[in-house]
Amino acid sequence: MSDSITVDENGKLKCSIEYTLGKIGGKWKPVILWHLAYDGTQRYNEMRRLLPGITHKMLSQQLKELEVDGLIDRKQFNEVPPRVEYSISEKGLTLKPLLEEMHRWGTEQWGGE
Amino acid sequence: MSDSITVDENGKLKCSIEYTLGKIGGKWKPVILWHLAYDGTQRYNEMRRLLPGITHKMLSQQLKELEVDGLIDRKQFNEVPPRVEYSISEKGLTLKPLLEEMHRWGTEQWGGE
DNA sequence: CAGGATCCGCGATGATACTG
DNA sequence: CAGTATCATCGCGGATCCTG
Q1: CB B26 within 8 A of CB B33
Q2: Are B61 and B100 in contact (CB under 8 A)?
Q3: How does DSSP classify residue B27?
Q4: Which of A32, A60, A61, B106 could form an S-S bond across to A20 if both were Cys, CB 3.0 to 4.6 Å?
Q5: A-to-B residue pairs, Cβ atoms closer than 8 angstroms
Q6: Residues in chain A within 8 Å Cβ distance of B12
Q7: Whole-angstrom Cα distance, residue A82 to residue A97?
Q8: Residue B57 Cβ under 7 A from any strand D atom
Q9: CB A63, CB A32: distance < 8 Å
Q10: Minimum distance, in Å, between the CA of residue A38 and any CA atom of chain B
Q11: Among residues A19, A31, A34, A20, which one has the least CA distance to residue A88?
C-alpha cells in the first residue's frame, strides 16, 4: 500500500504525510499542542515556562501559525495588564491520537538503546 | 497530565515528544519510513524515485541516520553493479501506528480547509 | 549503482530592543 | 503582560564533482 501522491500549485509533490508535517512539523509545534491538549488552557507566559529554551519570537510565531491553521484558539481579554489565553481547538483535538503516539513511542524507546 | 521533563547531557531540556522528533523529525524521515513500511524493501535508486525532490545527499544522509538509530536495515550485496537494499527494521515497525496516524490525519484534513 | 566529499546560499532560529 | 521589529547567525539542505 503506497501513499497517494499529488502535485501542489508550485509543482512540488506532496503526500498526506508531508501535509501533516507541514502543519505540525518542526521543533516546537507538537510540544505546544501537547501541553495545550493535556495541560489545558495556558496564558502566553505560562507557555514560555512550559517550553524551556523557546524564544519570544519562536513562541509567538508558532502560536500564530497554529492559530491561523485553526489548531488552537486564542482568546484575548482587554484588561490591564493584558491577558491572552491559548487553548486547543476542536480541530486541534483531532491530533490527540497522533500526539499520544509520539509521546508513547518516545517514552517506550527512551533508554532502550 | 503533563509530560515528564528531564535534562540531557548538554543541559538541554527534553521530553519524550522531543525525543521522538529527534529520531524521526525533519522533512524526509517519516516519508522514507512510510515507504519502507508499506511498500517493502527498496533499493537506493528506487527510494529516489519514491521521493521526488530529494537530493543525493539528503537521501543517503537520512538513510544513514535511520540505520544508525536502528529503524531501518541495510543489506549490501557485493555484486557488480553494486546493490543495496533498505527495509524497515523490527524497531522501525514500532513506528507503524505513528506513521499511520500521520497519514490518516493528513488525508482527513486535506482539503478540509 | 550507490554512495562520499566539498562548497555555499538562504531560510530557520536566536538575541536584543521596543511597544500597546 | 503579551507581544512586534530588527539584526545577527548558524546549520540544513541543495548543487556539483568524485569514487569503489
Answers
A1: no
A2: no
A3: S
A4: B106
A5: 122
A6: 53
A7: 34
A8: yes
A9: yes
A10: 5
A11: A34
Q: Do A98 and B101 touch (CB under 8 A)?
A: yes
Edge-first strand order for the sheet with A72-77 is A42-43, A83-88, A72-77
Report if CB B26 to strand D is under 7 Å: yes
- Among chain B residues, CA nearest to A13: B52
Query: Contact B31/A23, CB-based, under 8 Å?
Result: no
* Residue A15 β-bridge partners: A5
This prediction's pTM: 0.90
Q: Which of B38, B54, B88, B101 to mutate to test the interface with A (most CBs of A within 10 A)?
A: B101
Phi-psi region of B26 (alpha: psi -120 to 50; beta: other; left: phi over 0): left
With helix as H, strand as E and coil as C, how does A56-70 read?
Answer: HHHHHHHHHHHHHCC
